[in-house]
Automatic annotation (TrEMBL):
<comment type="pathway">
    <text>Amino-acid biosynthesis; L-lysine biosynthesis via DAP pathway; DL-2,6-diaminopimelate from LL-2,6-diaminopimelate: step 1/1.</text>
</comment>
<keyword id="KW-0963">Cytoplasm</keyword>
<feature type="binding site">
    <location>
        <position position="162"/>
    </location>
    <ligand>
        <name>substrate</name>
    </ligand>
</feature>
<feature type="active site" description="Proton acceptor">
    <location>
        <position position="222"/>
    </location>
</feature>
<keyword id="KW-0028">Amino-acid biosynthesis</keyword>
<feature type="binding site">
    <location>
        <begin position="213"/>
        <end position="214"/>
    </location>
    <ligand>
        <name>substrate</name>
    </ligand>
</feature>
<feature type="binding site">
    <location>
        <begin position="72"/>
        <end position="73"/>
    </location>
    <ligand>
        <name>substrate</name>
    </ligand>
</feature>
<keyword id="KW-0457">Lysine biosynthesis</keyword>
<feature type="binding site">
    <location>
        <position position="195"/>
    </location>
    <ligand>
        <name>substrate</name>
    </ligand>
</feature>
<dbReference type="GO" id="GO:0005829">
    <property type="term" value="C:cytosol"/>
</dbReference>
<comment type="similarity">
    <text>Belongs to the diaminopimelate epimerase family.</text>
</comment>
<dbReference type="Pfam" id="PF01678">
    <property type="entry name" value="DAP_epimerase"/>
</dbReference>
<feature type="binding site">
    <location>
        <begin position="223"/>
        <end position="224"/>
    </location>
    <ligand>
        <name>substrate</name>
    </ligand>
</feature>
<dbReference type="GO" id="GO:0009089">
    <property type="term" value="P:lysine biosynthetic process via diaminopimelate"/>
</dbReference>
<dbReference type="InterPro" id="IPR001653">
    <property type="entry name" value="DAP_epimerase_DapF"/>
</dbReference>
<feature type="binding site">
    <location>
        <position position="62"/>
    </location>
    <ligand>
        <name>substrate</name>
    </ligand>
</feature>
<dbReference type="GO" id="GO:0008837">
    <property type="term" value="F:diaminopimelate epimerase activity"/>
</dbReference>
């Protein structure tokens, strides 16, 4: 299987061009290639596929083999791959994902390679049934108490196609992400588990985020998570609707625009290509 290793702000995936390659058991392949000692090493597997509804289609699998509806850092890399490798020839493209069809704007460098991508991530979904969470279907979850191991956290939740639980903390560098992340990920109020973002407010326009990803553990960045953080900051009155988010592996710009759409802008990088026997 031919593959290309790419990352967005350090959130790295193995990408397979399914215009020419076939992947029969993507869940198993994701587990195998993701392993950082016995595989290629990545946070998961992303398939770049033909679509009958858009220019390109993305399927994304976490390192534990579970499939996610959406991946913000992944979709930027899919766009870069599609442009740089001649699958698309324009700088405004559409992509089919589990979160619907998204539109992306590509920014190229002097060598005509994509360097940065702006994604219309769609409208955040805020009700418990949409996230999904147990409890009153139509209710929103803003600053709601949640007790974990004798500590009360306050959670704000949103779906960007995939579920997110945002928690604001005072000192994110020293926060025990590995201790609390998995408990919240697997908490019974999230029937399809959840991604968890721990966030420190720096100012009304700047935050610092660490991410515990559903199915992958702590990662260096999460684009859908950074988008959910932009929404959660605004809903709690802590930040403006336009912020710079410092993730562990790089920065993302987020804007929850007046039209209700969430725009995410960030880097996309190709690292290397190779072949692996599956
Ligand atoms: N890192 C990804 C999100 C992966 C989400 C995945 N862990 C899930 O199960 O939803 C991002 O940049 O948006």
């Amino acid at each position: 299987m031919k593959f290309t290793k790419m990352h967005g702000a350090g959130n790295d995936y193995v990408y397979v061009n399914c215009f020419s390659e076939r992947v029969d058991n993507p869940a198993d392949v994701a587990i195998k290639v993701s392993n950082r000692n016995f595989g290629i090493g990545s946070d998961g597997l992303i398939l770049i596929m033909p679509s009958d509804k858009a220019d390109v289609r993305m399927r994304m699998f976490n390192s534990d083999g579970s499939e996610s509806e959406m991946c913000g850092n992944g979709i930027r890399c899919v766009a870069k791959y599609a442009y740089d490798h001649g699958i698309v020839g324009k700088k405004e493209i559409s992509a089919e994902t589990g979160a619907g069809i998204l539109t992306l704007q590509l920014f190229t460098n002097e060598a005509n390679k994509v360097e940065k991508v702006r994604v219309n991530m769609g409208r955040p979904r805020l009700t418990r049934s949409e996230i999904p969470m147990t409890g009153e279907a139509g209710a929103k979850v803003i600053n709601e108490p949640l007790n974990i191991l004798h500590t009360t956290f306050h959670i704000t939740c949103a779906s960007m196609g995939n579920p997110h639980c945002v928690i604001f903390v005072d000192d994110v560098e020293n926060f025990q992400v590995e201790k609390y992340g998995p408990i919240i990920e697997n908490h019974e109020i999230f029937p399809r588990r959840t991604n968890v973002e721990f966030v420190q407010i720096i100012s009304r326009t700047e935050v610092r985020q660490r991410t515990w990803e559903r199915g992958a553990g702590e990662t260096l960045a999460c684009g859908t998570g950074a988008s959910a953080v932009c929404v959660a900051g605004a809903l709690n009155g802590l930040t403006e609707k336009k912020i710079l988010n410092h993730l562990s592996g790089g920065d993302l710009e987020l804007e929850w625009a007046e039209d209700g759409f969430l725009y995410m802008t960030g880097p996309a990088v190709e690292v290397f290509s190779g072949e692996i026997e599956i």
